[in-house]
Automatic annotation (TrEMBL):
Organism: Streptomyces siderophoricus
Superkingdom as given in the UniProt entry: Bacteria
Bias (Basic and acidic residues): 210-223
Stretch list, region Disordered: 208-232
Record keywords: Hydrolase
InterPro entries given in the database record: His_Pase_superF_clade-1, His_PPase_superfam, Phosphoglycerate_Mutase, Phosphomutase_MSMEG4193_put
CDD domains: HP_PGM_like
Name this protein carries in UniProt: MSMEG_4193 family putative phosphomutase
């Protein structure tokens, strides 16, 4: 079966503002995010990509644009099932404001029980994303063969939930996984089991450097939902 390269979108204006963007329109890459996406073609230059797939949201489309331009023979396919989690009434709110919400404890400790008011449950989010990947695996294999690789641009919680599925982890443990903006996570699927080949690979180890204030370099790497802005 094919190899899936999951690309988290580059850093967005919502990431740096500390806002839970969800599916709100008009959330674009910031200057750092645009630079991150511009570096993608070089990072993947040696990988023959059979297909490019993206969440319909603007920040993912913008992230894939340089890669698409570098591969003029490939079409970008939009896949609604890998769109950001529908955070419902929480969308557009400051993450700092959501800390004291009773639901936030469930989101952190027992996400499989969490359903966002006016939105979807985290179980439903994972299920649709896994279904999308399985369908794309079959589609890519049928068209390009079992050894093909393809890239899919999505969101932090979606990617973390796909990694949890690949590792056979319960969704309640997926908050232990960290994927920074524009990081690459690679899952190689086989008939018997998936293999996690890369996790949150940015090629940059600056995020491991201790902070000047003495805090942990990973302490604010990812928000509890929606992902964090990461280093830089």
């Amino acid at each position: 079966m094919p190899t899936l390269i999951l690309v988290r979108h580059g850093r967005s204006t919502a990431n740096t503002a500390g806002v839970l963007a969800g599916r709100a329109p008009g959330v674009a890459l910031d200057e750092r995010g645009a630079a991150q996406s511009a570096a993608l073609p070089a990072r993947l230059a040696q990988v023959p990509l059979a297909a490019l797939v993206s969440s319909p949201l603007q920040r993912c489309r913008e992230t894939m644009a340089p890669l698409l331009a570098a591969r003029p023979g490939i079409t970008l396919h939009i896949e609604d099932r890998i769109s950001e989690c529908d955070y419902g009434d929480w969308s557009g709110r400051k993450l700092a404001e959501l800390t004291d919400e009773p639901l936030m404890e469930a989101v952190q400790q027992h996400p499989s029980s969490a359903a966002f008011p006016g939105g979807e449950s985290m179980r439903a989010m994972q299920a649709r994303a896994v279904d999308a990947v399985r369908d794309w695996n079959a589609r890519v294999e049928q068209t390009h063969g079992a050894e093909a690789a393809y890239a899919m641009c999505s969101h932090g919680d979606i990617i973390k939930s796909l990694v949890a599925d690949a590792l056979g982890m319960h969704l309640d443990l997926f908050q232990r996984i960290s994927v920074e903006p524009c990081s690459l996570t690679v899952i190689r699927y086989t008939r018997l089991r998936p293999y996690l080949v890369r996790l949150g690979d940015t090629g940059d180890f600056a995020s491991l450097v201790p902070r000047e204030d003495g805090g942990s370099p990973a302490a604010d790497r990812d928000a509890t939902i929606g992902g964090g802005a990461g280093a830089g």
